[in-house]
């Protein structure tokens, strides 16, 4: 970008740029105000005639809005949790890892295989359970892998998801990325596409292609949660608690430990880090361990909340995770968390205004606009993890 | 090949040297090689018989069709990535724009699914290419300011937005009511017939088909007894597909000629200069942004054309045919051949289609036809458990039964190996330099 300002864009003074930025900001604000007005009018049940046959307001229930915000938060936490690893690999290894979504899938399948084995011990055949209900056997309700019926199974599942995903990521690093460490972002990106294809198809080969339900849902829906009168899904609460816990742990790790300091140093300036005596290869390994286990756990939790999974689950979410990471400023884990939450919000809350055909497109559109007009992210240039 | 080095070349070396002398020979040799492999594979699967000719031609038809489609895509992609260094991974989206615009313009208004304006096909094709180029323009103007990996994400996001829009029932209903044309949403869109189909619906077609029908008594004398009936050597459906494939090959030849001309023109030299060092190109007074936008639009139009000739020739468009994985296939084909070289793009497409895309399925079919495998186990544990008793048959049967995911594993592994060990592709470093004269010492092939 800097090159262009030197030569071809020298006719555009900073003033013009500033005005252009102001116009875009005004436009964005205008749209936001319109949407908000629409929402408020809708909540009040007023319908105002507008130009072109469109109307402002209409019928929107407050509970619908509340529910959308809640699911937006849940989905956003998943995007944020998975985005931490993506952001870290970007800042420390300098490439956009397209296989991150399939690490997510790996975590979901390995974790749920073991969780079902624990929860359904004796109910069904071990192979059937370990392969996350591939083939014929007892239904997910009979196995009853839920946070109430078998919290231990869920806990073991989370751990296995983290460990297995880390193993896969370290293997990929050893055989794919390490031999080409200095080859620049694009060759690594292409290699990661290869890893993504291979990994996803391996999951499909081993676990089978069908979409399967894995969680038990009995007693999960609590109508009067802790006496607050709110209706709450306990699996969503589990997700919230685990995700927040892990995010806080990541924050403490990066800010309080020597490893975290080394990682931040490496993200800032690799050569300087090397000169200072930071063992860069070890930091890279730590990056993969942290990033992959968070991705794996995110995959496991996402399926805990959704109830079903197939081998495409992570690949379909990859672009949303990218969107969150980019929105928050690629390279920053706080940005990744915040950006993930915003994208989750957009994905769910935008359903109030647009049809469900387009909520994903809205999230991608926001990502593209941010990339084009504010590539350092909406929270402004924090590039250090 | 200098004289001192090859004092006494063997026949094989001399043959390879002869082939390497011209690009046309390399392409033809690769095609002949893949055709030969497939003839052998089909014979291995089915054994020899009169029907084999039909099967071999069917297999050749499929690989030629896919080869032409991928070669068009890789040539367009090579303009972006190989020549100018723009990492566009939204190929599927630009294809979709081409196909759907063609459909919206040319599908008849009373089609079963989706609705078009019913305009003549040439208008539809031209409109599809123009629309793809315009979407390319919209993407290019701002996107060229960002770095290569950001451009990748922008184009991928754009292609997903296009796919989601094409699959949107709401949008389709709205455009149908407003403009009288819609994509049909998730249920897909009917497309016009291939213009070559009318040949086979006429008397000319029947007489062509007759040529490939042989009276068995005549063969009896030459070969072996088959009973007294007529045998179709090549079915007319394969023949009519072949005619369409031939049209695609003609277009491919035209596009190849065009991008080659572009590559060696002053315009092409600026593109290569941008790839090598954009700052230098700017210092020499070239408005690099304008060049990049132009070539981006041109490449997108070609992607739209490729989409129309490929997906658009199948009578039906479905949003799911434009998933990002199609883009990755095109990239694998380009990288195998060697990005930066047009001949490399074409050779890479043949190798990709023959050895990676269609080959594994054919091998799977041979295994299941030749080895008398028992019923495949339904799940992976059923396949793995007998391995403990050294019984590989269930695993083999399971693998053959699930050849599709294994093929993707192979694709991924090949992509990784090539980018690691041979980033220049099978033809080696044939990247054309920006200089108008040859700066290399050694003899070049171009």
Automatic annotation (TrEMBL), chain A:
Isomerase among keywords: no
Biological process per Gene Ontology, one example term: D-alanine transmembrane transport
Residue ranges crossing the lipid bilayer per the database entry: 23-49, 69-91, 103-123, 143-172, 184-207, 234-254, 286-304, 316-344, 351-373
Matches recorded under InterPro entries: ABC_transp_permease (IPR001851), BCAA_transport_permease (IPR052157)
Membrane topology annotation: Multi-pass membrane protein
GO function terms (MF aspect): L-isoleucine transmembrane transporter activity; L-leucine transmembrane transporter activity; L-phenylalanine transmembrane transporter activity; L-valine transmembrane transporter activity
Keyword Cell inner membrane: yes
A Pfam match: BPD_transp_2
Record's GO cellular component terms: plasma membrane
Keyword tags: Amino-acid transport, Cell inner membrane, Cell membrane, Membrane, Transmembrane, Transmembrane helix, Transport
UniProt xrefs under CDD domains: TM_PBP1_LivH_like
Record's subcellular location: Cell membrane
Domain of life of the organism encoding this protein: Archaea
Protein family (similarity comment): Belongs to the binding-protein-dependent transport system permease family. LivHM subfamily.
Protein name, entry field: Branched-chain amino acid transport system permease protein
Source organism: Halovenus aranensis
From TrEMBL, chain B:
One Gene Ontology CC term in the entry: plasma membrane
Residue intervals passing through the bilayer: 26-44, 56-79, 86-105, 117-141, 242-259, 295-313, 328-357, 395-419
Keyword Nucleotide-binding on entry: no
GO MF annotation list: branched-chain amino acid transmembrane transporter activity
InterPro entries (UniProt xref): ABC_transp_permease (IPR001851), LivM-like (IPR043428)
Membrane-protein topology: Multi-pass membrane protein
Protein name per the record: Amino acid/amide ABC transporter membrane protein 2, HAAT family
Subcellular location: Cell membrane
Domain of life (superkingdom): Archaea
Keywords: Cell membrane, Membrane, Transmembrane, Transmembrane helix
């Amino acid at each position: 970008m800097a090159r262009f300002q030197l030569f071809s864009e020298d006719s555009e003074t900073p003033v013009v740029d500033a005005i252009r930025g102001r116009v875009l900001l005004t436009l964005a604000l205008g749209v936001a105000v319109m949407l908000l007005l629409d929402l408020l009018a809708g909540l009040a049940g007023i319908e105002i005639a507008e130009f072109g046959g469109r109307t402002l307001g209409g019928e929107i229930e407050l509970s619908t809005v509340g529910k959308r915000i809640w699911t937006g938060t849940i989905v956003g936490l998943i995007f944020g949790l998975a985005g931490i690893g993506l952001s870290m690999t970007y800042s420390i290894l300098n490439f956009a890892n397209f296989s991150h979504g399939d690490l997510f899938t790996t975590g979901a399948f390995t974790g749920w295989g073991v969780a079902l084995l624990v929860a359904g011990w004796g109910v069904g055949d071990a192979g059937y359970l370990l392969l996350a209900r591939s083939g014929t056997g007892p239904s997910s309700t009979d196995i009853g892998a839920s946070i109430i019926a078998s919290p231990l199974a869920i806990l073991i599942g989370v751990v296995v998801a983290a460990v297995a995903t880390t193993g896969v990521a370290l293997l990929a690093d050893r055989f794919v990325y390490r031999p080409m460490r200095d080859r620049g972002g694009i060759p690594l990106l292409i290699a990661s596409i290869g890893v993504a294809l291979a990994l996803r198809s391996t999951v499909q080969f081993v676990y089978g292609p069908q979409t399967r339900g894995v969680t038990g849902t009995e007693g999960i829906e609590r109508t009067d949660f802790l006496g607050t009168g709110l209706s709450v899904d306990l699996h969503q609460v589990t997700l919230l608690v685990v995700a927040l816990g892990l995010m806080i742990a990541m924050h403490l790790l990066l800010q309080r430990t020597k490893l975290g300091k080394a990682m931040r140093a490496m993200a800032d300036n690799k050569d300087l880090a090397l000169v200072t005596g930071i063992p860069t290869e070890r930091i890279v390994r730590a990056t993969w361990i942290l990033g992959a286990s968070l991705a794996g756990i995110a995959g496991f939790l996402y399926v805990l909340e959704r109830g079903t999974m197939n081998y495409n689950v992570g690949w379909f979410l990859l672009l949303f995770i990218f969107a969150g990471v980019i929105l928050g400023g690629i390279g920053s884990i706080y940005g990744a968390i915040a950006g993930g939450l915003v994208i989750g919000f957009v994905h769910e809350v935008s359903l109030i205004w647009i049809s469900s055909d387009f909520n994903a497109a809205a999230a991608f559109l926001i990502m593209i606009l941010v990339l084009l007009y504010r590539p350092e992210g909406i929270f402004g240039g924090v590039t250090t993890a | 090949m200098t004289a001192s080095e090859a004092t006494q070349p063997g026949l094989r070396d001399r043959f390879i040297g002869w082939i390497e002398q011209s690009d046309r020979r390399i392409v033809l040799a690769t095609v002949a090689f893949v055709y030969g492999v497939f003839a052998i594979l089909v014979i291995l699967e089915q054994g020899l018989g009169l029907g084999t000719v039909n099967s071999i031609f069917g297999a050749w038809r499929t690989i030629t069709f896919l080869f032409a489609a991928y070669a068009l895509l890789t040539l367009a992609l090579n303009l972006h990535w190989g020549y100018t260094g723009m990492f566009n991974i939204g190929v599927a989206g630009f294809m979709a724009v081409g196909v759907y615009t063609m459909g919206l313009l040319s599908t008849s208004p009373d089609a079963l699914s989706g609705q078009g304006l019913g305009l003549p096909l040439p208008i539809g094709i031209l409109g599809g290419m123009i629309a793809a180029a315009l979407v390319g323009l919209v993407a290019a103007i701002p996107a060229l300011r960002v770095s290569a990996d950001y451009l990748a994400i922008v184009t991928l996001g754009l292609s997903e937005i296009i796919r989601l829009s094409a699959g949107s029932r709401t949008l389709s209903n709205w455009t149908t009511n407003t403009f009288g044309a819609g994509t049909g949403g998730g249920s897909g869109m009917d497309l016009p017939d291939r213009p070559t189909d009318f040949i086979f619906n006429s008397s000319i077609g029947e007489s062509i088909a007759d040529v490939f029908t042989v009276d068995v008594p005549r063969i009896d004398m030459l070969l072996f007894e088959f009973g007294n009936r007529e045998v179709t050597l090549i079915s007319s459906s394969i023949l009519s597909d072949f005619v369409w494939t031939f049209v695609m090959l003609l277009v491919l030849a035209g596009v190849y000629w065009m991008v080659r001309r572009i590559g060696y023109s002053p315009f092409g030299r600026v593109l290569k200069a941008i790839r090598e060092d954009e700052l230098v190109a700017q210092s020499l007074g070239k408005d690099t942004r304008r060049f990049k936008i132009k070539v981006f639009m041109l490449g997108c139009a070609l992607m739209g054309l490729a989409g129309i000739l490929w997906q658009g020739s199948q009578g039906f468009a479905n949003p799911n045919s434009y998933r990002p994985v199609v883009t990755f296939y095109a990239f694998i084909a380009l990288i195998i051949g060697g990005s930066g070289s047009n001949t490399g793009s074409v050779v890479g497409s043949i190798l990709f289609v023959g050895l990676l895309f269609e080959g594994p399925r054919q091998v799977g079919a041979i295994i299941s036809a030749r080895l008398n495998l028992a019923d495949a186990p339904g799940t992976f544990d059923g396949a793995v458990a007998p391995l403990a008793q050294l019984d590989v048959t269930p695993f083999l049967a399971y693998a053959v039964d699930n050849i599709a995911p294994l093929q993707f594993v192979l694709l991924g592994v090949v992509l990784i190996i090539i980018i690691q060990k041979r980033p220049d592709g099978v033809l080696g470093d044939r990247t054309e330099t920006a200089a108008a004269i040859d700066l290399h010492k050694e003899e070049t092939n171009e």
